Amino acid sequence: MLKNQVTIIAGKHKRTKITFGDFDGLRPTAAKTRETLFSWLQHDITDSVCLDLFAGSGSLGFEATSRGCKKLIMVEKNYQICQQLKKNSNKISGDIEIINKSAEKFATHTTQIFDIVFFDPPFKSELYQKLNWFLEHIPLSHNGKVYVEIPVDRELELNNNWIISRKKIYSMVKFYLLTKKHNDE
Fold this sequence. Notes:
The chain has five helices and nine strands, in the order ββαβαβαβαβαβββ. The chain is of the alpha/beta class.
């Protein structure tokens, strides 16, 4: 396998190769991590509306589309990375919208309600420290889920409105699946 390439694991686009440029901080989610994540989401992904907030290589969003999400919005602030995402989206059939803006600007202005949000910012940026801000600004459906990836040497700091429903560690990454607390819980 090429260094700047990931392969979609399952679904209608199984084995499709996604290529990406050599950009500082671009760190696609590993296949083993994606397998675990989509095992967690297997009953939620079909017909869902997904947000890949820091799209990067697009591995999470394209995997979600391959597995049956009905609409995918990918947000990426780097123009060149967006161009590569657009090229790769031509290999994937589905309702995919690629937005070239910062995650903060997108979160502040979106009215779209999401079922699943992928929150996997570049680790060097330390944007993962703003997770609670993003959780307050991104509209989520009643049973919505948020996937979070952080460096293994950091702790996840959540406000009291969220529950960690799943968590795991692989290599240098901790990853979580979050759900929002409801008044009846």
